[in-house]
C-alpha cells in the first residue's frame, strides 16, 4: 500500500468529480530540488486535476507546470499530495490552477473532451 508523504493539508471536502483512469504522456517541471523537465504519464485524470507518476519527491503546495506531450494542453498546477510508490517513484496528485486546452478522454462511447474552465 502506498504511503502518503509530505501532505500537510487535511481536506474533508470530497472530490469535485470522479477521476477517469487514463495514461496521458506529460512533461512536468518546477521541482526545487531537482530542476528540469521530467517526462512521465498520468494514472488518472479529471477536468480539475490528475494523478501523475514522478521520479521526484514533491511537497503538498508545490507549484508545477504540466504540458501534454502533444502540446495541446498545459497548466500551472498545485501539488495536493505525494505518495511513495513501490521502487523509487512517487505518485502526486495535482490540481490545475490555470489550464489552457482540454484533456481528451476515450471511453466506450467514443471520444469525449473534458472541458476546462
Q: What descriptors fit this protein?
A:
about 120 residues; Thrombin, subunit H; two-stranded antiparallel ribbon; about 0% helix
Please provide a written account of the structure.
The structure is a single chain. The chain is mainly beta and 117 residues long. It has one domain (19-114): predicted glycosyltransferase like domains (Thrombin, subunit H, Beta Barrel), CATH 2.40.10. It is built from no helices and ten strands. The protein has strands at 3-5, 20-21, 25-29, 37-45, 49-54, 63-68, 74-84, 90-100, 103-107, 110-114. The chain has a six-stranded antiparallel beta barrel with strand order 3-4-5-8-7-6. Strands 9-10 form a two-stranded antiparallel ribbon. A hairpin with a 5-residue loop joins strand 6 (63-68) and strand 7 (74-84). The chain is globular and about 30 Å long. Residues 1-12 and 105-113 have low confidence and may be disordered.
Outline the fold blueprint.
Blueprint: E1 3-5, E2 20-21, E3 25-29, E4 37-45, E5 49-54, E6 63-68, E7 74-84, E8 90-100, E9 103-107, E10 110-114
Named at the architecture level, the CATH assignment is Beta Barrel
Quick one: overall form? globular
Cα-to-Cα separation, first versus last residue: 34 Å
The fourth-level CATH homologous superfamily is: predicted glycosyltransferase like domains
Largest sheet: 6 strands, antiparallel, barrel
Question: Beta fraction of the residues?
Answer: over 45%
Order of strands in the sheet with most strands: 3-4-5-8-7-6
Radius of gyration: 14 Å
Count of distinct strands? 10
String of helices and strands:
EEEEEEEEEE
- Find the CATH topology: Thrombin, subunit H
What is the oligomer described by this structure?
single chain
Poorly predicted ranges (pLDDT <50, ≥5 residues)? 1-12, 105-113
What's the number of domains?
Answer: 1
Q: How would you classify the helix and strand content by structural class?
A: mainly beta
Number of helices: 0
The pLDDT mean sits at 80
The helical percent reads under 10%
Amino acid at each position: 500500500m502506498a504511503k502518503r508523504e509530505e501532505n500537510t493539508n487535511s481536506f474533508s471536502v470530497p472530490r469535485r468529480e470522479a477521476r477517469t483512469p487514463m495514461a496521458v504522456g506529460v512533461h512536468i517541471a518546477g521541482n526545487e530540488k531537482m530542476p528540469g523537465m521530467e517526462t512521465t504519464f498520468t494514472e488518472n485524470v479529471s477536468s480539475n486535476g490528475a494523478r501523475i507518476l514522478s521520479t521526484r519527491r514533491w511537497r503538498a503546495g508545490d507549484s508545477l507546470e504540466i504540458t501534454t506531450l502533444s502540446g495541446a494542453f498545459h497548466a500551472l498546477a498545485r501539488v495536493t499530495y505525494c505518495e511513495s510508490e513501490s521502487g523509487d517513484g512517487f505518485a502526486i496528485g495535482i490540481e490545475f490552477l490555470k489550464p489552457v486546452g482540454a484533456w481528451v478522454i476515450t471511453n466506450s462511447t467514443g471520444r469525449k473532451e473534458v472541458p476546462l474552465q
